[in-house]
């Protein structure tokens, strides 16, 4: 039938557009749609986490974290500069803690294994004492031997520990002058502090997170992380409104 004839025109008009779709094109259409939806949700979630971290660091709020100068359980100097280059999870406690600290350190060990084995995320885990009078490097090392081998204990002078606790907004009640053998109680906050590879605060995880919840939250924060230089450029770019 010649293309210009009237019957040809009628046939092409009546023919349904679906006839021109193949199963391959339908599969491609659905796949692309699902992929774009997933990508949009993932990017939206990352932007929300970045905004949350930025708010935690935000202007007008007390900063969490800062310079410190301590000693690790192996007798080596450990400062806030050692936080740079990798993500860090920090917990404050003391070796004479009867129940809370052992439970939290057990949980920290599970978090370490969960992030490394399931999500292949490497980070350093620190246990900073709130009781420098009794927690020498030797005591810290002996105490932490019962927990995960990757948890590094930090201690120091009374003034340096107090300064560190103040920087992290950790409640500190340890007495300065204690007689040999004197017993006393130590109160402290119960939080994990997540720090980025620039040594900056990302988020705090309290007892509202169980182990699995903490693993997922840290995993999401790590994957959403961007260096400060990248964040600054994006804020000044075309889509800067998404980061405000």
UniProtKB/TrEMBL annotation:
PROSITE patterns: THIOREDOXIN_2 (PS51352)
InterPro entries: SCO1/SenC (IPR003782), Synth_of_cyt-c-oxidase_Sco1/2 (IPR017276), Thioredoxin-like_sf (IPR036249), Thioredoxin_domain (IPR013766)
Disulfide bridge map: 97-101
The keyword Glycoprotein belongs to this UniProt entry's keyword annotation: no
CDD domains, A to Z: SCO
Domain of life of the native organism: Eukaryota
A GO BP annotation: cell redox homeostasis
Domain Thioredoxin: 59-227
Gene Ontology molecular-function annotations: copper chaperone activity; copper ion binding
Main location: mitochondrion
SUPFAM superfamilies xrefs: Thioredoxin-like (SSF52833)
Gene3D superfamilies: Glutaredoxin
Binding site for Cu cation: 97, 101, 188
Transmembrane segments: 20-40
Subcellular location: Mitochondrion inner membrane
GO cellular component: mitochondrial inner membrane
Record key words, sorted: Copper, Disulfide bond, Membrane, Metal-binding, Mitochondrion, Mitochondrion inner membrane, Transmembrane, Transmembrane helix
Family according to the record: Belongs to the SCO1/2 family.
PANTHER family: AT19154P, ELECTRON TRANSPORT PROTIN SCO1/SENC FAMILY MEMBER
This protein's name: Thioredoxin domain-containing protein
């Amino acid at each position: 039938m010649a293309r210009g004839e009237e019957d040809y025109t009628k046939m092409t008009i009546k023919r349904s557009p679906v006839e021109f779709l193949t199963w391959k094109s339908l599969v491609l259409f659905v796949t692309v749609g699902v992929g774009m939806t997933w990508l949009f949700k993932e990017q939206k979630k990352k932007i929300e986490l970045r905004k949350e971290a930025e708010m935690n660091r935000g202007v007008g709020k007390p900063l969490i974290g800062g310079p410190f100068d301590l000693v690790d359980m192996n007798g080596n100097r450990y400062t806030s500069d050692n936080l740079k280059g990798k993500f860090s999870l920090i917990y404050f406690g003391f070796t004479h803690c009867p129940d809370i600290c052992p439970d939290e350190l057990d949980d920290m060990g599970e978090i370490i294994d969960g992030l490394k084995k399931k999500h292949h995320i490497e980070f350093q885990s620190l246990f900073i004492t709130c009781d420098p009078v009794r927690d020498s490097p030797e005591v810290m090392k002996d105490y932490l031997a019962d927990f995960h081998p990757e948890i590094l204990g930090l201690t120091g002078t009374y003034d340096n520990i107090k300064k560190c606790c103040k920087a992290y907004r950790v409640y500190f009640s340890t007495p300065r002058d204690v007689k040999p053998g004197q017993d006393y109680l130590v109160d402290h906050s119960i939080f994990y502090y997540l720090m980025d590879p620039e040594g900056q605060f990302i988020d705090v995880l309290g007892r509202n997170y169980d182990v699995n919840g903490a693993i997922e939250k840290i995993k999401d924060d790590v994957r959403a992380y961007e260096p400060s230089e990248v964040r600054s450029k994006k804020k000044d770019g075309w889509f800067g409104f998404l980061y405000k």
